[in-house]
Amino acid sequence: MSTEQLLSIKNLNIYLQEHGSDTRNQIIHNVSFDLEKGKVLGIVGGSGSGKTLTSLSVLSLLHDKFSVTGSIHFNGADLLQLPERKIRKIRGKEIALIPQNPMASFNPIISIGEHMVESMRSHQKLTRKIAKELAIYYLEKMNFADPSDLISQYPFQLSGGMLQRVLIAITLSLQPSLIIADEPTTALDKVTEDHILHQLEIMKEEYDTSMLLVSHDFHVVSRLADEVAVIHNGMLVEKGSIVNVFRQPNHSYTKQLIDASIRLKREKP
Ligand SMILES: Nc1ncnc2c1ncn2[C@@H]1O[C@H](COP(=O)(O)OP(=O)(O)OP(=O)(O)O)[C@@H](O)[C@H]1O
Q: Name one GO molecular function term (predicted).
């Protein structure tokens, strides 16, 4: 592995064996790709292609009915070989996940400010006062008009788009080396999608954050990604620079995804 690579996935296979079943099905087949420091890699594929399983395997967040072979080197260590205790330290602090449904990441009875303070204090030695000041700073970065008021609100008082921006602010505050954003805008309308993509652009440009951006939508990925990997039926069918793949897709499945994203862009309200 070159020293520049932050993440290097080699020959990743993921198998599913339901409890009590003798049959083991292979879902991900021999997937390999690298992510350089400071770059964004888009992982694109249709529903059920295996994007989420591939990205969750990096965080060792797969249910125990899945088994994984191959290697996932992150900062030099193979994550598949690390004990859970070490993975837990990496998760959140070194590798953070921005999921599709942000609501599931929040506890409904804890205020936005408390979520931010707690997540920062669980990874860094900070007083509550400093953590609160930092929370306000990062919410300002996410263009919230009144962060001092926002921190006393509860998750149910915020829209899906606002919660997603809070989650990005929390992620920023942890300053991870790698962010995995799994369909971060799929549930949102066009205007909110634009806001979120803009916030992710800020993350990339100001903080030099490396990112795996998972989406079924080529248009979303093309806004941010340097490189793209296309997954179909659990197999990597094409990868390359976003400009080259977008202009001259080699695989017919990639062409279909690009056409679908152009249609989606026209139709999304
Ligand atoms: N918990 C699960 N139990 C059984 N099969 C699963 C589970 N999660 C995923 N799969 C199967 O694994 C395959 C890949 O799923 P995955 O969620 O990675 O796809 P995806 O590309 O992220 O799709 P989507 O965008 O719809 O989430 C699918 O065929 C799916 O049915």
A: ATP hydrolysis activity
Counting from 1 in the atom list of ligand 1, the atom nearest the Cα of 216 is: 25
The complex's ipTM? 0.94
> 49 C-alpha to center of ligand 1: Å?
7
Residues in the chain: 269
Task: Record the pTM.
Answer: 0.89
Ligand 1 close to Cβ of residue 48 (< 6 A): yes
User: Hey, which CATH number is domain 35-63+82-267, 3.30.2010.10, 3.20.20.240, 3.30.70.100, 3.40.50.300?
Assistant: 3.40.50.300
Determine contact, residues 78/71, Cβ cutoff 8 Å.
Answer: yes
Strand partners, 35: 7
Is residue 13 a contact partner of residue 29, using CB atoms and an 8 Å limit? yes
**Under DSSP, is residue 103 helix (H, G, I), strand (E, B) or coil?**
helix
Q: What is the pLDDT of residues 113-149, one digit of tens each?
A: 999 999 999 888 899 999 999 999 999 988 888 999 9
